[in-house]
Amino acid sequence: MNFELTAEQALLQNAARTILAERSSFESVRRWERDAGGYDRNLWEEVAGLGWHGLSLPERFGGSGLGALEQVLLLREMGRTLWTSPYLAHVLASWAIAQFGSENLQRRVLPVLASGEDTITTAIFGLGVDLSAAADAVVAEAGSPHSSLDGNSLFVPYVEAASWILVLGTQSGEPELFLVRAQQAGVNWSLMPGLSGDRQYRVDFQGAIAEPLAGGDSGGIAEFLWSRGALLATAYMTGAGEALVEMTAEYAKQRTQFGVPIGSFQAVQHRCADMKVDVDAAVWLTLEAAWRLDQAQGVRDVSVAKAYASDALRRAVTHGHQVHGAIGFSEEHPMPLFTRRVKALEVLFGDATLHREWVAQALLDGEPA
Amino acid sequence: MDFDFSPEEEAFRAELRAFIESSLPDWWQGLFLEQDKSWAFAKQFCQNLAEKGWLTMTWPKEYGGQEAGPWKQAIVREEMWTHQEPRGPQYMSLNWIGPTIMRFGSEAQKVFFLPQMAAGTLNWCQGFSEPNAGSDLASLETRAVADGDDYLINGQKIWTSYAEQADYCFLATRTDPDVPKHRGISVFLVDMNTPGIKVRPIDSMVGFGDINQVYFDNVRVGRSAMLGERNQGWYVMASGLNHERVGIARYAKSEHLLQMIMDYCKRTTVRGRRLADDAVVRQKIAEAYLCWKAARLMNYRVIDMQSRGLEPVAEASLARIHNIQTDQRIANLGMEILGMYGLLNPGGEDSPEQGTLQWLWRQSVSTSIAAGTLEIQKNLVAQKGLGLPR
User: Fold this and answer.
1) ipTM for the complex shown
2) Residues 278-307, chain B: which have Cβ within 8 Å of A?
3) Neighbour tally for A11: CB within 10 Å
4) What whole-number distance in Å separates Cα of residue B230 and Cα of residue B188?
5) Chain A nearest C-alpha distance from B282 (Å)
6) Residues of A in contact with B6 (CB under 8 A)
7) How far is CA A202 from CA A116, A127, A168, A188, in A?
């Protein structure tokens, strides 16, 4: 047992905290919500230069060869400032290619993803948002050398900024991942504006040229995407949670009513304590889940973390609002940003109910001990 | 990072578990049942553990320990709580009274108490709460007044666990009523056979030995019975209570109960379907599992801090809040799933799982009260952890 970060991990965490604190203020996050560009490309390129894009990709493809744990540490820092970018999708797609892609395809694509030269997004949700619906919504016809995609994907992040889309579809009745050039005649998209304020799109494929990833060996694709996606989303969410607890405690110290800081009232203290109790556990469950993934110990702990964090953060946001009072509704204050983003993350890659069921499968679908 | 115990630690756990399981009589369900037999067993068990060197294995060598690290200590706690704490009340003296005597005790006190505790022959009670001093412990009124070389103690303690069985009391008294309340407290280590001490057991829904009232009527103790400096008692107690907060592996008891509930759901069929296949039951069990995992992890964070020489304060309270939530959630889940069967007393022909559930549930009611209420723990998290004003 050892809960301490290595010196390298601590360095990564501190560097990320510093640069994001400097470059991604809550004001800028809100500004980018209203900007057609969607996110800060200068910062995106800068952190690519720091090696963030290839952090957990193999060194032979230009990555840093680090693990899920380091990736989680980085996303947690992004969550602290609510920095929004295609990063989560980019990492998830890169992981999927590293897992399922042929050697040839990996050699071609992973280096430009690791360097940040190209950006990739993920099209893995269909109507109904569950494991099978996405694959069914996009059907590929096998061809030579490329397949042809028809159908549509929903909730595709930042597609207008992407060179590539990793699409979950079906070919010959089996789920398959496809590498698709975003800029081509058969790919069209329209914005799906939503609560969280980040950019997501409906993408329509009409005879889009697509390269199948796995070439037949596609077992567990959807499970892989959902579990890894859930881990990354949870990491971001727990970082947001930590920042929310700090912001709320700070407000409770400064806001004076009845002649005293409201943080001296026990009712307020207990809400703040409940937030801390919930968020700290979510943080550590996520770190453990990432560590176990790096030890090849399976993904049940990811579901534990996602289920816990989804509920914990919803409770924390409720407390946060209650402590902030009316100013918490003001879009001039960061509170609504937390509220909206956390709500989106709560359901992204499965809400607490779905992940609890996955935990239950591991616990209950065997014989009595 | 590493979230697993080492192979050496796991081997120790297996050895300890085998020893506990071979020692426990088949009727053992914790101190709350078969009271006379249970008390006699717990006393003997502590002595057997002491012979194996496991009772005080985390203590320094000079006081009869092996200087085992905090992680081994955690393993001992977990295995004991999984088996309904067969050490009886001694876990508390090992966890914090011993270390507090090591830190604040005189040479004579160390020489007198520590070897007896290491041998497992000494039982303690803690004289803290009073009728008018619960959460506001520092307002305690039991007076100790200097009388020549002695002190005369008058007053009463309440909710004192194991007062009838204890050999000694770790007693908090007021030695100066004219200074702010935290600065006028002194601790005495008092022989429970001293004339003037009277114990009245209070019938408790939680179980054997659980609560007593203790009266002190002109109890004369020597100056040498004082632990630490005069009027420094609050500091002595706070140091001890910090140990106590993390000294109880309640989550291990919860894990044991959750396992019992899951097994019950796997083998019990209702209206043609296994309980374990019911969607609502599955959600509730998974939720309980998440809480348990969170609680264990938050306890492990505290142990990790201790193992690195850091002093957990808010983290210890936070871990305890998780223990409380988990204990109550899982006990309630068990009662919900077992329904009317869960109400049955132990030993009955129809009592499921030996009828322990009812008693574990009774205990869970007190979990958020004993050793500092849930609300006090939340205050500590808010004030010490988040810096909110007192």
Assistant:
1) 0.95
2) 279, 282-283, 285-287, 289-290, 293-295, 297-298, 300-301, 303-305, 307
3) 11
4) 10
5) 6
6) 1
7) 24, 10, 14, 8
Q: pTM for the full model?
A: 0.95
B340-351 residue pLDDT tens: 999 998 888 888
pLDDT at B30: 83
- CB–CB of A127/A133 below 8 Å? yes
DSSP conformation class of B382: I
pLDDT attached to residue A291: 98
CB-CB: which of B3, B287, B301 is closest to A356?
B287
Residue A238 is encoded by which pair of tokens?
């727990």
Tokens of B142: 């039991």
Contacts of A130 (CB under 8 A, 6+ apart): none
CA B339 remoteness from chain centre: 29
Say whether the peptide bond before residue A334 is cis (omega within 30 degrees of 0): no
- Give the pLDDT score at A133: 65
Does B249 score more than 80 pLDDT? yes
Contacts (Cβ under 8 Å, ≥6 apart) of B340: none
Helix axes B356-367, B314-338, angle to 10 degrees: 150
Cα B104 to Cα A79, A95, B79, B100, B107, distances in angstroms = 46, 56, 30, 6, 10
Question: Please, which residues have CB within 8 angstroms of residue A343's CB and are 6 or more apart in sequence?
Answer: A195, A196, A314, A317
b/e for B179-188, b at 16 or more Cβ within 10 A?
eebeebbbbb
Region of residue B100 (phi > 0: left; psi between -120 and 50: alpha; otherwise: beta):
alpha
A267 reaches B (C-beta below 8 A): no
- Across the interface, do A368 and B263 touch by the CB < 8 Å criterion? yes
Separation CA A290–CA A297 (nearest Å): 10
Instruction: Evaluate whether A234 touches A309 at the Cβ level (below 8 Å).
Output: yes
Query: B92-104: per-residue pLDDT in tens?
Result: 888 889 999 999 9
> B94 or B131: which carries more pLDDT confidence?
B131
Is pLDDT at B244 greater than 70 in this prediction?
no
Residue B332: both structure tokens together: 């309630």
Q: Which amino acid is at B311?
A: E
Percent of chain B whose pLDDT exceeds 90 = 76
The radius of gyration computed from the CA coordinates of chain A, to the nearest angstrom, equals 21
- Token pair recorded at residue B203: 């019938």
Given a cut of 70, the residues of chain A with pLDDT beneath it are 127-134, 215-219, 367-369
Q: Which of B12, B136, B293 to mutate to test the interface with A (most CBs of A within 10 A)?
A: B293
Provide, as residue numbers in chain A, all residues whose Cβ is less than 8 Å from the Cβ of B297. 281, 284-285, 288
Question: What HEC string does B251-303 produce?
Answer: HHHHHHHHHHHHHHHHHCEECCEEHHHCHHHHHHHHHHHHHHHHHHHHHHHHH
* pLDDT score for B95: 85
* Mean pLDDT rounded to a whole number for chain A: 94
